[in-house]
Each structure stands twice: as C-alpha cells, then as structure tokens.
Amino acid sequence: ILRVTGVQTCALPICCLSHLQHAVYGNGDETYWKTYMNMPRYIDKLLEKCDIQIAEEEKDKVEALQSEFTRFGSMLNDSERMLNTNKDKMKGNLMQNLEDFKSTVAARRKKFLQEGPFDAALTIKKAFEGIEQWKDWVEQDREAELRMQGGVDLFGLDRPVYKDLAGIEKDLDLLQQVWGLNNEWADMYEEWKGGRFTDLNVE
Questions:
Q1: Could you tell me the pTM of the whole model?
Q2: At what angle do helices 163-192 and 124-154 cross, to 10 degrees?
Q3: Facing residues of 4 across strands?
Q4: CA distance 72 to 21
Q5: CA distances from 2 to 10, 53, 68 (A)
Q6: Nearest to residue 112, comparing CAs of 92, 141, 89?
Q7: Which pLDDT does position 15 carry in this prediction?
Q8: How far apart are CA 133 and CA 111, in angstroms?
Q9: Are 104 and 145 in contact (CB under 8 A)?
Q10: What pairs with residue 2 in β-bridges?
C-alpha cells in the first residue's frame, strides 16, 4: 500500500499502470493537473468563508501534497520504464531460446537418421528399446516447446513449427509398424518351423 500525505492508493496490477498515470496526470493536460492539485486549497478557502477553522496541521498537509504527488507520479514513470525494459529483455531471451531450441531439434533429427533403429541387423528387442528411447526424447522436446508457448502467446509471436521434430515422430510411427510386423512374423515362424506343412494355418 502506498500512502501520499493523506491520499491512500491500493497496489495495482501492471496492466493498470497506464490508467493510474491518466488519473494522476490527466493524460498530460496541464489544466487538469493544476485543477486537481489546487482542489484542496479551493476547499479550504470555501471552509474559511464559512468561518470553519482549519487546523494548521491540515494546511501543512495540503502544502506538502503537491511535492508528494509529484514524487508519486515520478515513481509511476520509473515503474513504466522498468517494465518496458524488462519486457524487452524477456522478449529477447525468449527469441534466443526459440532459436536455440530450433538448433537442438535439427541436431536431434540428424542424430536420429544416423543412429535410429533402422538397421535390419538389430534384434527386435533392441529395435523396440531404441524406439522407446527416441519417443522419450521427442516427448521431452515437446514439453520444452510447450513451456515456451506461454511466452510466444504473451508477445504475440507466430507459433514456431518444428518440422524436424514432426519428422522424427512420423518416422517413429513407421518404425513401430515395421518392427511390429517383423515381430509378428518371427512369432509365426517359431510356431511353424517345427510343424508339418499340411498342418500350417496361414489365415
């Protein structure tokens, strides 16, 4: 809570800063400002005309009001400058993080094409273990993307599209199908290889 010589204001959200400045400065209208600041004096004069005595302490508060109010207005301006500076800094950090993440995803795609479970010489068990490992890495990348999305929306940026990440996901789905068929064939072969040809059930 801020107290300015008899004037009490509540702490306001950042989004209300401009409205508070308008209330203090009248949007830069000098007439508004002078009228607002002299209002206590006008009231005092009216009270004196009605033979109502005003305590010296109250008069001193009125005289101190303008300097206190000016200080309050300066504080609002300083807060706005700080807010804009921090906002620019946050946006710059976000842009850098997005670029870094894009590079990370591109490197992940390159590594996947080199080390993914594409080799037919792999055992089925190893292939499925590899697929699950790559799925975990892709999930971590998607979570990182989601964490940055709040900042993207806040600053009104275009939502990034990570084609390399989508490519890994698509290839993993295909690998899952291929190795799944391979596993089915292996199971059927184990069942058939010791039986007679006339007993085979190929349906």
A1: 0.60
A2: 160
A3: 7
A4: 10
A5: 7, 29, 11
A6: 141
A7: 45
A8: 13
A9: no
A10: 9
